[in-house]
Amino acid sequence: MLTNLLKFSTIKLAFFTIAIGLYLIGASTVAKADTVAYFQDNNGEFGTIDLNTGQTTIINSNNTLLAGYGLGVVNGKLYFTTSNNSNVYGHGQLWSINPATGAATFIGASGLDYAAFGSTTNGLFTYVIGGPIASINPANGVATEIGLPEGVNFPILSTSNDSSSLYEINAGTGALSRFFASINTATGSATTLGTSLSSNDWAAMVYLNGTLYAILQAGTPNAPFATYTINTSTGITTQYGPVLSSSQPFILGLAPYPLPGTPSTLSKIGVFSNGSWYFDMNGNGQWDGSSVDKVIPNFGVGLPNAIPVVGDWDGTGIKRVGVFSNGTWYLDMNGNGAWDGSSVDKVIPNFGVGLPNAIPVVGNWPGSTGAGDKIGVFSNGTWYLDMNGNGAWDGSSVDTVIPNFGAGLPNAIPVVGNWPGSTGAGDKIGVFSNGTWYLDMNGNGAWDGSSVDTVIPNFGAGLAGAMPVVGDWDGTGVTRIGVFWNGQWFLDKAGDGIWHGTPTDIYYPNFGVGLPGAWPVIIK
After folding, report:
1. Cα–Cα distance between 520 and 269 in angstroms, integer?
2. In the chain, N or C: fewer CB atoms in 10 Å?
């Protein structure tokens, strides 16, 4: 039975709550996960930009090759083109980019001069200066011209993660200036869709999840740049994000983040309420109804002191739900969100029964055997971890007991994660105590002081009843901390253990206020 401040953590992701009423309604759109894109600029910088907030994260700041003609994606790989004659490769170069480091690898050169570069789900495309559109072979960089020259002036091509449509903007001046068109990539012909574009100059376009975005300069010459959406029927633009910093170099290309075909590690929030589960499936921090998000109506209803858990129960890498009830575990093995009985799903009858204030934990414990996550229990500062995955306590010679990590700390709440900078494989333990975090960095289960382990002195202090959460808030695969407080979420996206406010960090003002007996949960 949990005391005042209910304490609980799961897998690399922690979740817990106190007995407060919660209800789900719309939340802020700050730092939406579905509007992040890779970018390149004319200073040779490569990184990510949140099109909703304008926040950029630099991955590589010193690669002048990246000052090319746009970004393109095919088969989950990222490319750019350039005609940089300061190197030996000559005209019409195709390069691939390592998205983790920004490092560029030369693929091949066509000998043609390019004016723009983009992609669809069907391949890579470019405009040849003075010529037509062309397709580019991603294996060798060879360009094949398609159709007749269009006579465009300073075009911009779109890059897409989920569309076979290719769009162009003529961003120059003169008789052919300022039109928006779709391009038939089989014939090379363009169909004008709009001619009254509410912008002055264009930098880059990217098609993300059904919406075409552009970084553009609106209004008069020398006006600041901002993010806009483009109506693909009319070419009319509508400002979407804030004005970009005046120090931001000219953005030349955008591409989907994460790359299409690349699984995202991004964590998403959810709520468990008296056996019902509500998951934020699109990662926008708001409840959009069961047609967009996900509700599991009954997994844990009626179980006394039911506490939700999430883990990879069978070693497949798929996270599924479960419930801990007074030392008994009920795990959804087939992922259908329903209890199908022990012949299909799994019941562990006793791992934690009788331990005072037993709190379930789940993780990939260092030194454990077998694939998947293992269960464990935190009891007043002592940890009991199932190392062989059989769901039974086999004693400390087989399983692991950590006698003291959190004992004596007021309102200690266990957390589990692969902490940035920690050593060794597997998940490490930690404790949250009234806004202070103590993280075991070397995985020995002992507090070795802040010179070896990590103390975060204030992320959640002063918020009465604040509860820690742990997850990957930006899809980079790095575990970061956060706090859930009365239905509000404060997530440390910057990863420095300090609350900076938005847009540096993430704030969801309302996902979870009001549902009876609600617990916040974190999923992938």
Report:
1. 7
2. N
**Residue 188: which CATH number?**
2.120.10.80
437: in domain: yes
| Contact call for residues 440 and 428 (beta carbons, < 8 A) | yes
Q: Where are the beta strands (DSSP E) in 341-427?
A: 346-348, 359-363, 374-379, 382-385, 400-402, 413-417
* pLDDT 10s digits, 222-236: 677 888 888 888 888
Give 3-state DSSP helix, strand, coil % of the chain, rounded to 5: 0, 40, 60
Convert the pLDDT of each residue in 405-458 to its tens digit.
999 999 999 999 988 888 888 899 999 999 999 999 999 999 999 999 999 999
Please count the structural domains in the chain: 2
User: Which tokens is 243 given?
Assistant: 């004005």
Question: Which domain, by its residues, includes 222?
Answer: 35-256
pTM exceeding 0.70? no
DSSP assignments along 243-286, one per residue: EPPTTSPPEEEEEESSPTTSPP---EEEEEETTEEEE-SSSSSS
Both 308 and 247 in one domain: the answer is no
Please give the structure tokens belonging to residue 198: 């509410």
Q: Confidence band (pLDDT; 50, 70, 90) for 154?
A: low
Residue 474 structure tokens? 């930006």
